[in-house]
Amino acid sequence: MFCFMVEVERIVKANDREYNEKFQYADNRIHTSKYNILTFLPINLFEQFQRVANAYFLCLLILQLIPEISSLTWFTTIVPLVLVITMTAVKDATDDYFRHKSDNQVNNRQSEVLINSKLQNEKWMNVKVGDIIKLENNQFVAADLLLLSSSEPHGLCYVETAELDGETNLKVRHALSVTSELGADISRLAGFDGIVVCEVPNNKLDKFMGILSWKDSKHSLNNEKIILRGCILRNTSWCFGMVIFAGPDTKLMQNSGKTKFKRTSIDRLMNTLVLWIFGFLICLGIILAIGNSIWESQTGDQFRTFLFWNEGEKSSVFSGFLTFWSYIIILNTVVPISLYVSVEVIRLGHSYFINWDRKMYYSRKAIPAEARTTTLNEELGQIEYIFSDKTGTLTQNIMTFKRCSINGRIYGEVHDDLDQKTEITQEKEPVDFSVKSQADREFQFFDHNLMESIKMGDPKVHEFLRLLALCHTVMSEENSAGELIYQVQSPDEGALVTAARNFGFIFKSRTPETITIEELGTLATYQLLAFLDFNNTRKRMSVIVRNPEGQIKLYSKGADTILFEKLHPSNEVLLSLTSDHLSEFAGEGLRTLAIAYRDLDDKYFKEWHKMLEDANAATEERDERIAGLYEEIERDLMLLGATAVEDKLQEGVIETVTSLSLANIKIWVLTGDKQETAINIGYACNMLTDDMNDVFVIAGNNAVEVREELRKAKQNLFGQNRNFSNGHVVCEKKQQLELDSIVEETLTGDYALIINGHSLAHALESDVKNDLLELACMCKTVICCRVTPLQKAQVVELVKKYRNAVTLAIGDGANDVSMIKSAHIGIGISGQEGLQAVLASDYSFAQFRYLQRLLLVHGRWSYFRMCKFLCYFFYKNFAFTLVHFWFGFFCGFSAQIALDTSYWTFINHVFIWGSIAIYFSILFTMHSNGIFGIFPNQFPFVGNARHSLTQKCIWLVILLTTVASVMPVVAFRFLKVDLYPTLSDQIRRWQKAQKKARPPSSRRPRTRRSSSRRSGYAFAHQEGYGELITSGKNMRAKNPPPTSGLEKTHYNSTSWIENLCKKTTDTVSSFSQDKTVKL
After folding, report:
1. What CA–CA distance (Å, rounded) separates 407 from 460?
2. Straight-line distance from the first to the last Cα atom of the chain, in angstroms, rounded to the nearest whole number
3. Which numeric CATH code is attached to 359-393+649-717+749-865?
4. Cβ(1028)–Cβ(1060) below 8 Å
5. Which fold has domain 401-414+435-648?
6. Where are the transmembrane segments (predicted)?
7. Residue 542's beta-bridge partner residues?
8. Which residue in 271, 389, 419, 566 could disulfide with 811, CB within 3.0 to 4.6 Å?
């Protein structure tokens, strides 16, 4: 039977359900719920009886059913026990009902499936492996599909992967050329019978390997051919795909963690207390049983005749044994079952306080805060680590053009009448773009000087905006209303092209050979001669164009650290000014780019382009030769200026991060975004600062490199501390762990750790993860980039397991669900990426800033109230129970109760309602307006304090008392530290000495940190889009290239698909280099 076999490889045949069913692959139904009708009762009862008190009262109920030892009716135990279990079961069933409801909503979505040569609407849960599905624009992908064909040329389609990795920029996927010919022909698609042999289901989002066999030929498959469940089809009218993985086998579900039963530290504490109290109860029972045996042997004989006992019928030992169990029943109130009921009621009240909090209500979208569970409120006050997503959680993922520096002058600032820089407020009037018909109505810019420079015809300003309109990978189209719509691969480029559009340099259209823009109302067509694409090493992109006047120009934009090295020596003065401007922009958390150009000689360009063609045709060292030619032509550039784009943070993020850091809560950012983008957001949120002692970047490509980088970072951070301690402490495991915690407490300075996803995969291995955790916990800030959803959960589990700390995870997308489920407390933000995170969370709200109030106000109050309640509750129950223990010495240890149940119930009500009534009565009375008028003579103390403090002798007595109380303690502390210093004191003393002896130049220069931060801006689109554009593969045939009268010479004839498949889109995973794709 296949169901008992381990799947080694997956074999799927298209349009053949009967063939695929023999492998018993999972269907497309998903389950995120914990129970069903059959399993609810046993699983829920098992979970509930994991509570020690519930198990204890079940045993107590069994004892009460034995008449020889019970002096109380079993009814007094079974009713509250059943009540507690029923209430908890109803709450758990309600929570799971909403999970079932969410599952049904997803499973019942409709999708068009090709069945019996016809497209039929089928529910997602009925989709099978091997089916061919039709998707339309803006639809969610139902399963992991092999892309067969699409409405776009050459089988291209665009997908948004926000649910998987949090990125909203579009990704391109392309079908095999042999399947793209199928188009939308239903008969040909129904006759498609290709067989796919591929890897087994796994959680690697960036890796796929397989082979398609069709028509006696085999075709390699990689990740570029696969559309994953959770993606959304964008800018593509339709596409067809073949289901490879369905339901729980999809990569999205493989990255989703299981729903776990969460308990708070208070629950665990109560379980421990119950065990100790139960042990105390056993001791009391033994004492009373021994007393009963002694009493029976010495005094009980005198009562045998009176009680009509026969001689020898009852021994003293057996009487003591029965008495022991009787007292266990009588004294059971020391562990009251009402404790858990009361705790649940208090938690429910705290949940309503959170739901009703108007300061956590987001009025713009009418979204209140919601406590989706009632069992974790007090845990909010014990958080030590916060794991946060970036996109949509810390940021709005909206890029806005804010500033620019052109020819040494800053544009975007607002000045007052005295020419002093002022802040931009809502009262300031933005530049009026309403006169421009093609302007973006949402774009705002407040500096009118830039518009004046454009109108005056400043050539540098015109060239700057012209570069923004030409040097990009944006595609344009017109909607039904005739409005110009930009399709952007990254929101950064969209912001720059939109800014140029509003200032009069409008990007209109492009073909593989030309780019058409509108310059201040005049159409101009530029011949695209070469496209020098972006990659992570170059950190820049360039285009070479011939303008309508016949001049050849190279326009380039990129990270300033790279581009400044390519400038002509004559730019020295402008370089200094622009560098200062970039530092100013970076200080405000803006993402910056340097802008430069170069005039090229026609003869020189032709020679260079001939060498480029030869390099493209080379079979050996092709990439190195092309990179060398790019370096050769991108030199002697003339600097134009720089741009500053704001990745808008959510409101209040900086203040929230600062407050939580002051509360000694460590914040780790786990994001699927690029390293450069995450670093910029870290600076913008003040998680990273230029004043930090060091920022460790871990980017190793294998386990050995990662281990070495981690150990070097540890040596730089506290290697000296460890060397110092090894001379004083025996290096045993326990002592070493104690030393690490002491070093962490006494560590001076702020440090940060940044690690990539491929490095994190190796760092989470068993022999390296301890080094990673030790280093990360020493750092103030940790940022993990390009991580998969499963890696997010693994990082959370690592901290939970080895640090024994209370963790909180917060996110807004489906890629955060696994992390949210793994943490002690999961919080979902009602953002723009769906409700998956909210549905899996314990608490939800609309903005990250509400986390501060949730933890520091509601969390603290809940924990404080619960602790006070437990102390009061145990005191009350001990006071009542010990009365029966003491009464046993006066009743011959006969297991009689001193106070009956009705009295105990009355005492409960007096304690609870009476104390509340008395408290509020006194409170309202003492603060009422009329009490002073009714009893004026009873308040003579008003004003006495002020008069008494005017006496000198009073102050002398206060001073002498203070000195007499404090001085002995202070002297004792100083002598103890001097004569018997602890290990912590020794380390502090050594660190102070090292700090004094350390040269002031040991710190990294500030300029380097600022430069690194500015250079962090990078394009978010994938490498290869340059060749995609110049090849024309992504352009619809119905858009003919506009006639320009220019020479239609296409210089770059190399297949873009071949080059795209040979290049690595990003350093996301080391697995992507395992195979070479052959088309």
Report:
1. 7
2. 37
3. 3.40.50.1000
4. yes
5. Calcium-transporting ATPase, cytoplasmic domain N (3.40.1110)
6. 72-90, 273-295, 315-341, 878-899, 911-932, 953-975
7. 532, 556
8. 389
Q: What digits encode the pLDDT tens for the residues 937-979?
A: 555 444 455 556 667 787 788 888 888 888 888 888 788 878 8
Rg, Å, the chain Cα set: 37
- 696 contacts 711 by C-beta, under 8 angstroms: no
Nearest to 882 by CA among 325, 280, 341: 280
Instruction: Name the residue ranges covered by the structural domains of the chain.
Output: 10-28+127-256, 37-105, 359-393+649-717+749-865, 401-414+435-648
Residues 865, 871, 876, 882: what is their CA dihedral angle, to the nearest 10 degrees? 170
**Which tokens sit at 350?**
């705290």
pLDDT digits (tens, 9 = 90+) for 593-650: 899 999 999 999 999 999 988 888 777 888 888 889 999 999 999 999 999 888 778 8
Mean pLDDT across 743-761: 77
Positions at the binding site for Mg(2+): 389, 391, 812, 816
Picking from 515, 624, 662, 634, the residue whose alpha carbon sits closest to that of residue 568 is 634
Binding positions for ATP are 389-391, 493, 534, 557, 591, 671-673, 786, 792, 815-816
The two structure tokens encoding residue 357: 């909090």
Residue of 475, 461, 483, 550 whose CA lies nearest to 512: 475
Backbone angles phi, psi at 986, to 5 degrees: -60, -40
Question: pLDDT tier at 130 (50, 70, 90 boundaries)?
Answer: very high
Calculate what percentage of the chain has a pLDDT beyond 90.
Answer: 22
Which residues have a Cβ under 8 Å from the Cβ of 101 and sit 6 or more positions away? Answer: none
357 is catalytic: no
Q: Determine the Cα–Cα distance for residues 673 and 492; give it in Å rounded to an integer.
A: 13
Please report, in range form, the residues annotated as the binding site.
Answer: 389-391, 493, 534, 557, 591, 671-673, 786, 792, 812, 815-816
Q: Could you say which of 249, 389, 533, 647 is catalytic?
A: 389
pLDDT band at 556 (very low <50, low <70, confident <90, very high): very high
CB atoms within 10 A of CB 75: 10
For 1024, the token pair is 């290869």
Question: Distance of alpha carbon 524 from its chain centroid, rounded?
Answer: 46
* Architecture of domain 10-28+127-256 in this structure: Distorted Sandwich (2.70)
Is there a contact between 756 and 726 (Cβ–Cβ < 8 Å)? no
Comparison of pLDDT for 535 and 736, the residue scoring more = 535
